Amino acid sequence: MENIMTHSGVIDVAAVIDSHPFSGFQKRLVAVCFLLMTLDSINLSTIAYAAPTIAADWGLSVSNFGPIFGAGMVGIMMGALFFGSAADYVGRRLMIISGVSIFGVLTLLTVTAHSFRTLLIDRLLTGIGLGAVIPNIIALTSEYAPARRRAMLISIMSCGLPMGGLLIGIFAVPMIPRFGWKSVFYLGGLVPILLVPLLIRQLPESIRFLALRKADRSQVTKVLRRIAPEIPITENDELLIREEKIHSLSVKNLFTHGRLRNTLLLWSAFFANLLMLFVFNNWLPAVLRKLGIPMTGAIVATTLFFLGGTIGGLLLAWLSGRASPHRVVGYGFIGAAIATTALAMSQGRVINMMIAVFFSGLCVIGTQININVIAAAIYPTSIRSTGLGWALGIGRIGSIVGPIVGGILLSRGTSVANLFLMIAIPGLVGAAAVFQLRSDQSGADTRKMKQ
Q1: How far is Cα 384 from Cα 69, in angstroms, rounded to an integer?
Q2: 8 Å CB contact between 58 and 116
Q3: N or C end of the chain, less CB within 10 A?
Q4: pTM listed for this prediction
Q5: How many Å apart are CA 101 and CA 96, to the nearest integer?
Q6: Cα-flanking dihedrals φ and ψ of residue 368, to 5°?
Q7: What is the pLDDT of residues 232-290, one digit of tens each?
Q8: Are 288 and 62 in contact (CB under 8 A)?
Q9: Domains, the chain
């Protein structure tokens, strides 16, 4: 109790979270964030599985879908930048619910698309909702996690990314041939729409955000009692959080107080990783079909990619708990470059390709999951969503460039082997950036709340 009660009548909010056993309330919160990450990933990946069938129905070449894939990435970038920054003003809860509502409705409306242009606009708007969710659920998980378990919990929650890709692959195999491409968009839209009322009733605001923003004291008290019901809290107690408080919420704060170097290196690493990830995410089924692998085999390979990512996310998180996260993520980038090169060299040997795809997913997605941990640790609560949103937003430039350039290269006759060799290069760039990152050394202010 002495760590929680800094002196008579003063309760340290962060100390409550860090010293108290992980409560059922916090476990449910992480589970909800995992579910939201999974739904986000399902909606993100659906277009890759549906594209070959849509192209056939509309008399198009699948290589023409580069702008469609790119439009979704532009939307995600816009959503991450705007909603990430807005969350540091109005809170994570509202931005998460807004994002889920947007991508649920727009995914459902995809079934009404009747032309290339309408599909492109729909994926752009859907992307805005998808981009709103990710930085805020990472921030929310980080701000409810005790310090001793924060890295592992963020990684577990982020495993919803490959899990969504894995699940949509499992659903897409029977659904698209039997019910058509629209069926997966019905699934991807209805589930988040039905989830919104539950989020409105149950999703809490970040307790650290509430404390720093000097919000309604009763909200903080209510959450504290759910985390640690045995701690007595009276009306006269002060609620304190020992963390840096930045009063001017501006993007420029990502570059001040010694953060410039870390911010630029973080952006470089996100750019490199998301370029690699979304070339795989958008083009893997199509390029495997181009090599003569049947649709079922292409979907199985893509499922292996996301299965490898789920395992990789947990493996790298486990290693990060026993070594420097920066070193683990850096070597993860190198592993991604090696696995992608191996994939380029395994053309014509299906078993070798499947193994290389699995390890590419393990390293590429595993690295993405764990770089979120590093990003969440670099910035304080008052600019955490802004920092995460901008890192993901700038990184999305890579996710835009990758699929578009991939489509251009394929349409001009570039071999699949050469495409994968090119994808390996960003892995080395990301490794160089992460190895130079250092922990944030900015000071911390104290914030008190009193009724």
Answers
A1: 28
A2: yes
A3: N
A4: 0.81
A5: 9
A6: -60, -45
A7: 766 666 666 666 565 555 678 888 878 889 999 999 999 999 999 888 877 787 787 77
A8: no
A9: 5-449 (1.20.1250.20)
